[in-house]
Amino acid sequence: MIGTLLRVLGQEYAGPVRRTVALMTATALAEGLSYALLVPVLRALFGSTPEDARPWLAAFAAAVAVYAVLRYVSDRSGFRVGTTMLHGMYERLGEHLARLPIGWYQPGRTGEVSVLASQGVLQAMGVIAHLLAPFISACVTPLTIVAVMLAFNWQLGLAGLAAVPLVAAVQLRAARATTATDRERVERERAATGRVIEYLQAQPVLRAGGRTGERFGLLDDSLRELRRASRRATLSALPGVLGLAVTVQAVFTALLALGAYLALGGGIGAAEVLAILVLAARCADPLLSLAEMSGGIRAARAELTRLDEVLTTEPLPEPRTPREPTRHDVEFDAVTFRHGDRTVADGVTLSVPEGRRLAVVGPSGAGKTTLLQLLARFYDVDAGAVRIGGVDVREMDTAALMARIAVVFQDVYLFDGTIEENVRLGRPDATDAEVRAAAAAARLDEVIERLPGGWSTEVGEGGVLLSGGERQRVSIARALLKDAPIVLLDEVTSALDPVNEAAVHAGIEELMAGRTVVLVAHRMATVRRADHVAFLDAGRVLEQGTHEELLRRAGRYAAYWDLSLAGVARD
Ligand SMILES: Nc1ncnc2c1ncn2[C@@H]1O[C@H](COP(=O)(O)OP(=O)(O)OP(=O)(O)O)[C@@H](O)[C@H]1O
Which residue among 106, 339, 373 is best mutated to probe the pocket of ligand 1, counting the most ligand atoms within 8 A of its Cβ? Predict the structure, then answer.
């Protein structure tokens, strides 16, 4: 497990971990030796000259003192290394999550990643801080005691030694028996958390649709499954716990019987038997706690395996020698892309000269948004290529690609912070004047004037404290501030009221001016302003040309608008 931990986190932690393990082992040895010194102490006390016990008592006190100091140092070291590794894991996970392709973030990942990033990391990393010391002590202290028993009486020592593989076998069997049920419990836990998060996020929709009961049913089912899986995991662990307890007690009884037999035969004094039985009793406690600890270790291992899976998920490959385009025309060259076995883009060939606008139109599910996502390299194409200025986006450094693209989507996500912080995200090093100018161009200044907190108004998680139109203006200001040569717009104004729509339109016009634009639009007014239009259906470009040309052709594009406008007229 420590090996996996180091592989996941990096070998720079190997030194401190090794030192901590050595310290903990030394502590466990000191603990075992201090118990072992009870044998000569008791032998002297029960012997004919009890005063002989004095030097042994002094040695016992010294061993206990050494143990106490070592215990303090090793606990502190374990805690320090555990905390450093915990931070390391958070950093590693944070960095990696930011590099994973957007395609990895499927529905259900929110719950999974939240559980993993909170409880998963804590549980996996808590091993070093909380479980390692008792685990080492439970293994090393009994072994030290067995060695001492061997030194005092070989028969009793051998009996103790014979018990070691027996206890280890029972322990291993117990661990194996619970592997499957533990894994199932972790899976169910993850599914249930995903459902809880979905249920909370979907409250407005569910209440509006009066479907809270139905979705709650799904959540209830998954909680019931979790309860069942937990019960199965507990039940499967029970034989192991009982088996270990019975084995340890049986070994203790066997030692007692052997001691009595040897004492009756005169081969060993009563004091030695007593002392060795005290030692054997001291072994029982840590051995029994092994069962409890191994539950914690198994749970930590399950989380670590999951962390390992996430951390070994490959981000999109970065080019070895990145290329930088010098122009900003955009080209989709025979692009094919699949979501699973579904082809979402099927041999799409389109081009947008620098500074021109391409509108992508088509029915729902045609693959319009996917084209924007392929351009921003949220995914990699399965065949063909997407190029900027003649350079394949896969040959560009991701940061350099993202610096060239500003994206405005219909659903705007704002971070919990002030309006100013959210706008600055576009270009963190922008001057105040540049931020103000972007806000004015996006007509965000009107909103800020109305708000009591002005620029310092908190927008709430996801921007919930602002209206949809206001959020949209923040995202346009952000994109304007970024001042990227390529702009991607996805149905930006389709859900806005007329006042907001007019304001957002003005901002969008400002954003599009002089830039290469690919926009997905459902409104004719927006499409009309594009230089070129592509009509997409089922991932294929069926028609392309200017808006007027396509209307004159009276084909699928014209029929699409007839249908849409008839719908609007009916409304
Ligand atoms: N992450 C995903 N996993 C699987 N299928 C997906 C995923 N994202 C999109 N799809 C599917 O790909 C197809 C194209 O989706 P896309 O969002 O590009 O369509 P669109 O034309 O933009 O639709 P709309 O106008 O409704 O937004 C859809 O059928 C959609 O269900």
Answer: 339
